[in-house]
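Thread: Modeling a multi-component assembly for a lab meeting

Hi all, long-time lurker, first post. My supervisor asked me to bring a structural picture of a complex we are working on to next week's group meeting, and I have zero experience with this. I have the sequence lines for every component (1127 residues in total). Could someone generate the structure of the whole assembly? Inputs are pasted exactly as I received them:
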Amino acid sequence: MNLLWCLVICPLLFSLVILLIPSKKNAVLSWLSIVSVIINLVLLSFLATSSHNTVPPAIHLFQTSFLTIDFALDSLSWLLCLVCSLVWMFASLFSIHYFEQENIKLLKRYQAFSLLNYWTVLLIFLATNFFTFFIFFELLLIVSYVLIIHYQTKEAFAAGIKYFFFQIIGGLFLFFGLVLTFSIIKTSDFIPGGYAALSSHPLFSLIFWCYIIGLSIKAGLFPLHIWLPEAHPVAPSPASALLSGMVIKTGSFGIFKVVVMLFGTSHLVGKVDITVLVVLSVLTMFWGSAVAIGQFHLKRVLAYSSVSQIGYILMGVSLLSPLSILGSLVHTVGHAFVKSTLFLSAGSMIENTKQTDITKYNGYGQRNPVVFSAFTIGALSMIGFPLFANFISKWVLGMGIMEAFQLNYIPTWLMGLCLSMLMISSLLNALYYTPILIRGWFYPVDENDKKPFHLSWSEAIPLCLLSLIIIALFFFPHSWINPFINAISPTIPVETIVSPF
Amino acid sequence: MLLSFAGQSFTNFFLWLTIPPWLTAFIFSFRYIQKRIWEFRIFFLLTFLCNILLFYADNWFTFLTIYESLTLCSLPIIFHDRSKNAISGGKWYFFFSLLSGILILSSVLLRTVQSQWIGIYAYIPFFIAMVGFLIKCGAFPFHVWLPEAHPVAPTPASAVLSGSIIKVGFYGLLFLSYEMELPRIIGQVLLWTAVVTMFYGVIQALLQSNIKKMLAFHSVSQMGYVLLGLSLFWIYREEGALIGSLTHAMNHAYFKSALFIASGIQYLSYHTLDMYQIKQFFIRYKIAAILLLVAVLGISGFPFFNGFVSKTILHEELLAHPNIVYQVVETIFLLTAIGTLVSNTKWFYLSSMRKEPAIKTTFRQKPLLSEWIPLFILGFLIVALGIFPTLYEHFLPYPFQEESHHLLEEILPFHSSFKHSFSGFVYTFFAGIAFLYVGLQNHWFHHHLPSILDIKLWWLVLINQIMFPLFNLIQRGELALIKLYSYGSNRLGGMLLMDTFLEKKIAFFYHLCYINPVRFCQTSSSFEARFQENLFISINPPVKDKNKNPAAEWFVGSENSLLTGFRNFYNGIKCLFSISHTIDNKDSQYYDKILTLYGKIWIRWLIGITVLLILVFILIVRKYIP
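Re: Modeling a multi-component assembly
Sure thing. I ran the full set together rather than chain by chain. Output:
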């Protein structure tokens, strides 16, 4: 119990320390945030065993007659917190070099708010009812806004305001859904199996779409993804890695929680609304990849790729079969590691060459092999090549589609659509990633200066570790998927899950 | 499913098939590769490892993993030259292999729900996997990547690509065919694919002047033979046909890698791959020329050389079914054999036997060891298997050994039935020599196929006229979506008249964010300051020094970036499949001209014909569907 309190308070404390410390050295600020995340990782490792208990460690912050703010660390949230902490640690490590020349005051704000982001995302993963989730989801909007506008250029403000308005509208939808939920079931606790009263209510569609729209604005579902490719490129690279790696995942995690633990998968089967959601997420998968082909700004390409990957995740959730839900969680993790690798290495590429155009990285691989190898590993993983993490998650997702079809959750045409789009999206990923890779490795260097770029240890270490993680996740799928199967077993009938590995 | 490796029934056979081309090409690479030696060697050996491990794959997960790794590892050796043409040729290979991998993956996934379907639909997963492997084999409509990738890759790479890597597709088909009983219709589909593949390949090969391109088309055509045997096995479940196709796959691996290595030796000494410019090869390099002749005789199906054995077995399997369909197939089979003989003999004749004076290039009498040792190893295998066909049965898995013993014994030289097949060859030989003589006199081999029969053009039309417009449409859709939002937000801002001034300000601001950030940048907005103030974020002054700011260099205009995006999109995709070759620049001009002149008129015809074909196909298929 005390450990959980420590876990929750530590990042908050450190962000205050960062704001107040009278240090003039940039590295000190970055190290403070790394230390905070590492402390949390240690705390998480201590909490590992207790999270499997039937009554997981919990915090009851306050309770009125019906509004409660509760957190609990069950095994699923433990896993997600672990992934979140790892990604944050690597991004913070990377920021030591990235922000070497940065204005100290701006850096102070960046690091403090980065930790606040971390804190908020952790609490979102720990929330045990939708009210708590909602509060921290809204808080996340404000703290992540600061990361987006970090450079305070006109473009950053333009993208930031777009982000802000989109999220505000999403928040309104969520609030409306929350009020309706309270009026019907008088509570918003996440329970295994969900509430039958909610799914059989005449206003079901309204509530469902309020939740889905509100959450998918954060996640970036197809018609609501417009803010995402604007916001990611303007943010500093470590911040975009965090935004794309973890922050937008809170939206998809929210949809997972709502679908599985508020409505209940068994109550949603066969509803038209969920079929529409499947079609939308499949469309997102295709749309994101297809638009990314036409982009030329490296980070915009990566952002559109994120849109497409969110489509995979939401498709997994909305297919409702145990394996597909497992697949979506697993893909969340795989994508978090891979996309942060890509954004961090893209940060180095942009910083080294002072170019953002994807056609300007000719021969970059020869000048900075470590960074470009990490980028290559990330890109190949995104395409879904074996030997890298995302092949496993795509495999599980594919099995999930098949299982949904076998359980008669979806008709044949929808199964065909999902499967073909999963495959076509992989092919499209190859269409926009391989030209970058081929240019980087096989084209001659454009400029006269052919000297290798300086590589700082704080760039190399996180990139190498992330690449190793991506490869290790492929070779040890058991160690990765079985914990997830155990973690979602209380909420989903586990006997139907036959581990695909 | 996890990575697991175990010997399969065909592992032994495929190891014998795979290792000699890899070994000889590796030896040859010591002479051929002069730049970036270690990069080439490392990736060459990695690809070799993948190729070997593939035959030990114990489940589909392992198979796919190794299959895709093979594609990935072989890319650096194909791109080794680093020229634009090498990269564009390699891209054809890469994307077709990727497509094949994706089809196989989806078939593996669909396999889990196979029991849900009844009748012919139960074979959908099988059919998808079959198409995937046919892409890797280089079967008819998907063969385009072979003649693109082979000429641009360094010769040792093309030798293994053609000798070993395309056999992976055949291995996959073999792997599939033991998993279930197949309906006849699938065997028929494969049969006609094989027939078209072998005939089309040889026709194209006859018309090439680039040696490596010719050899690539021969690979297509010879894979047609291999698939023909496999399809007969699928239809009738006769082991003889399977033995024919297996032995032909092995023979093809040997003589094709020998031919590629010989073309590499010619390239090293003449610095050209145009067969009409290579003269007096025999006088300069006696050993190499003789070994080249051995390989040419092998591929032509000359008695006492290995091609004869497998072609005879396949021919006899065809004759075993006296039926009008198989008579047609047999005719095409013989025509293909004649074409193969003509085309390879033409190459040998032009390079070695012409009496014209040599062009003045450096004259080198003694070829290096690394040049003729690989040729010697392969030549030895070709002759040994031709003279002692019973050697094959040691490679084949146990259940086939008895059957193959009977079959192979009949082809032993001076066996009673040998005379019959030998006389069959004699007709082919004289027909081929006559054709070669008349063809060379009348310049038949300098023509192009009519462009409607050029499959590469069909693919280019598919990419240029269908895929580009589709993606263009999506780009426009994204732009329209952005405009819709800005319009909607503007309207919305006007409607919510709570605080008119603020709302209008917000709406205007919001509008500008989407429409024109530049204009927005120039007006110093008090709203912006207020906004920051309200959120407590204006702790610090804005950054003054924009030089250190990577994001400042980039501009988030939604319209402008998207419009530039279109341009970039076109350039990017065109670059992906750009049409040009190292050796044959005329070729690229030819395709460019055709695409610009006829592309747009053609597209209607092509679409019309395709729709018609699909309709006919559906009509045919419906007959077989219960």
